[in-house]
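Q: Sequence in, structure out?
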Amino acid sequence: MNNFAEELVSDQIYSGKSFLSKIRDLLSNFQSQSTSTLAVDVNGFPVGEMQNELFPGLKTEILKELDCKDTGASTNFVYERFRWRRCQLQQICQKLKIHEAIEYTARYRMFYFFDHKTAVCTIPKSASSTWREHLRLVNCGPPHHLPITDDARLKQINNQSVAEILQNLKGLTKIITHHAGMLWPDRFHEFWLPALLVNDLVPQDLRKTFNISWPVPQDIRYKTSVYETLYHRIKPQITFGQFIKLVITSHRDGVANPHWKTYHSQCSPCRMDFNYITKTETLEEDLLFIFAVFGIPADASIVENSSRKSVVPSRDFRHFKWISKALRKSLQQLLMPDIQMFAYKWPKSL
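A: Exactly. Output:
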């Protein structure tokens, strides 16, 4: 890695506006250096418009022989961290033979910074609220009282055939954000009811009265009185083990909620060929780099729905002590492709 890259991406030195300013100054000062040297450093990354202007003729061919040994996930350099994550993902994808619904990803999960030739795959619990806030601000809409999908340009794209959407995505820089954990939202109709049904906690008479069965149709919403009756009659207390059973069962039956659905089933990381892999653990640093390099006028310090300022693994993992080994093994098998793709490790204590 050359001096330019080391100075450019040291997340130990720069933060906020000073970081953005430093990046732009360094990019400008580097125009006279050898493009062949630079091409090796950014191998596998497409060239954004800002880079095109600074480095005309820059080559970015992907090496046939991938080698992730020269860098690592714990590096202090944002730039090298991105390169390592992408390399790691590509290597794992070469080994795994998994099905990815890229058509679903292209039409329902990809959102665009329209004037910056950049797209991001957003899914619940992986900084999706943060990304959508940036998308609204940069794209000047839609307003907050409307869903992010209510955008004329997005609708125009999604009205095309899947083949046309994928062809358009080939020319864009693509970003994905991964999050290491799962959270348990408290919407009764979307989370509690499925968990109650999977764990046989809804009495038969209530099932017949309200015509409730598993799987719960995702497009059906019962009257509020139904949920109130269930709540007061059952007084539900869903345990962690019962929640994990819901996660596994809903995947098995093809009805997993997006909040805990696997990443490869939503964002198709092996087939979509994402250029930048961000993580919620390093999100602000990652966004600072991406916004600066591609000239996206957004404030990386904006973070939505950050209810937990810190994560203590030992505190979270203690819940696994109360579930069976068989359930833990099923969960591990379900999540292992994602864990490997995004360079996490299954805790030995589990």
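Residues 69 and 228 are 56 Å apart (CA to CA).
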